[in-house]
Amino acid sequence: MLEQLTEFIGRTHLVLLHFPIALLIVAAIVELLRALNLRRAAARYVPGPAASTMFFFALLATAASVLTGLILGFDDGPKVDQHRILGIVSGVLVLITTFALLAARSPGAKKAPSIYLLLLTVSAAAVGLTGHLGGEITHGEGYITRPLTRIFQDPTEPISAVALDPAMFDITQAQLDTYLTDIQPILDASCVECHGPEDAEDDVRLDSIEHVLSPDTSILMRGDPVMSDLVYLIELPPGDPDIMPPEDHADPLTPDQTRLIRDWVESLGS
Length: 270
Ligand code: HEC
Known about the structure:
By secondary structure, this protein is mainly alpha-helical. The protein has eleven helices and no strands. It starts with a helix and ends with a helix.
């Protein structure tokens, strides 16, 4: 009961996190424009009421996001650590900015308003960057821009630029051809964003046959799909927390795709 409740509270992080990002960025823009206008009118900048209200809500939302983020925890990894540290740093920055705002609003404060403006801008940038790193954890690197890079890709380009020698991998030419025409495109489309050169989750890379067959990770047992994690994980029933690709990220592979991978792994036994 308590465990389920903490898990629920942790997951609200994925909703709450949007508030500090939007509120701080908008508050910073509003205040920067205000400061510019006041300067043009040769008046002294003081924090405006609208952005101060936004900042107050941003403070609450940041506290809630940091807290739920720590509760959520998530499976660890260098990226999660970066996100966590930057999240905590952002929280501290927002707290310091709060004191700067209080100082800036008290009459007679000379430098405080500009310090507040600077801290507000830095906080907005830090929270934005934290959110960006967090997005890469949940969606994989380059999730948003990938459709754009596809525009510039030549669809007629051969799958592999270098001629591969099947003997290098102790497989037949036919097995290599099946891999290049049927298997690698599936892995490229559904797995490589998290299992590629930039982001090898669990140290598993699926961007080339060399890595797929690598004895280091042993995700594949030649001729034995049942014992191969590569097959096991994609054939898990929908809803299984271990399924690949992760369900919150993408739809499961189609039965045709899993069959192609299973048959190919099976064929490697002979
Ligand atoms: C959104 C990112 C993401 C995508 C897409 C993704 N994976 Fe993963 N994969 C992970 C993460 C994270 C782990 C580590 C899982 C864990 O520790 O529970 C992992 C682990 C694995 C492992 C190692 C598991 C083990 O038992 O050691 C294999 C094999 C794997 N994935 C295969 C695949 C395949 C095949 C695909 C495509 C069909 C795929 N993954 C797509 C994120 C992803």
